[in-house]
Amino acid sequence: MTKRIGSIGILMLGGAKRVSMARHFISAAGRAGYEARIYSYELDSLVPISSVAKVIIGKRWNDPLVFEDLHNTIVENDIDIMVPFVDGAVEIAARYSYGDCFSPACTPLLAAMMFDKGIAAQLFEREHIIIPRTYSRGAPRYPLIAKPRLGSASRGIKIVNSSADFRSIDPAQYLIQEYIEKKREYTVDCYISQQGEIITIVPRERLETAGGEVTRTITVNRPDIIEQSRYIIDTLKLTGAITLQFLEDSTDGRVMLMEINPRLGGGAVTAIAAGADIPAMIIAEALGNPLPREVKGKPGTLVARYLQETVFNVNTNEK
């Protein structure tokens, strides 16, 4: 990597609320002997990340000029590492390939497939990955859950309890699966090198959520979930920072994959607190330094997230 001596430029794509994650990157860079210069590519300057990073006003992910604008941002600010934090940014980061800017991403094809729930479910079934029973045709068995194929953060999800409910949705626009009422939800934070070596797999139970994001979560000792995760990673040849979402049917014990988010999740700070320092892994790989052998997260690490305000003077845009 050719870079400014003594510093590392890190560009967060859509990192508006990821203040604590930015601080972890700053800390990890410091332990590696570098000063982290944190930037965040946003549509609005008045976002919490501005308390620790320089906000760069960018373009929407579907803007035809986003690659040109992003490239200019990377060159002008001497960016070494680019990390996506929102769904729309993942394929952008995966597709960007110029110079020495490193991104902990999977392939562009996999990124695109993971954000169409219908296509992803077909891939999972083809690869014998256990998922909830998926409706395709014929007489539906209620209750069902309908998730927008291109949705995220639990927005637009519908519970289908009757024929009338079913007629109100367009099956082509939704992934429709069995609805499991009595369940436990688990997230698995993973990091896999660009050579496919699994560096860490840390499962945690989602205890409380708000607005689609976890607010209270605890790492757990679940060898079965770790092994399922390992199978999924190896089978799909996943790389980079990956978040796997599982649910467990409390009535029969089935553990099923819900979705894969090929990026750092908001709750990944829990894996870091449990000993799996994913920002340090990203920095090490970007620098070409040796990565640790597989790191296990300590079970029983509970993280409760809370709101904290960033105050702006909207007349001057000063904090």
Structure in words:
- The chain is an alpha+beta fold.
- The protein has 9 helices and 13 strands.
- Helix 1 links the parallel strand 1 and strand 2.
Q: Main traits of this protein?
A:
4-stranded parallel sheet; 9 helices
In short:
Helices cover 26% and strands 27% of the residues.
Q: Given the structure, what is the number of helices?
A: 9
Rg calculated over all Cα atoms: 20 Å
Strand order of the largest sheet: 12-11-8-9-10-13
Low-pLDDT regions: none
> What share of residues is helical?
25-40%
Fraction of residues in β-strands? 25-35%
Order of helices and strands: EHEEHEHHHEEHEEEEHEEHHE
Based on DSSP secondary structure assignment, what is the total number of beta strands?
Answer: 13
Could you report the average pLDDT, rounded to the nearest whole number? 92
Separation, N- and C-terminal Cα atoms: 34 Å
**Largest sheet composition:** 6 strands, antiparallel
- Form type: globular
Structural class: alpha+beta
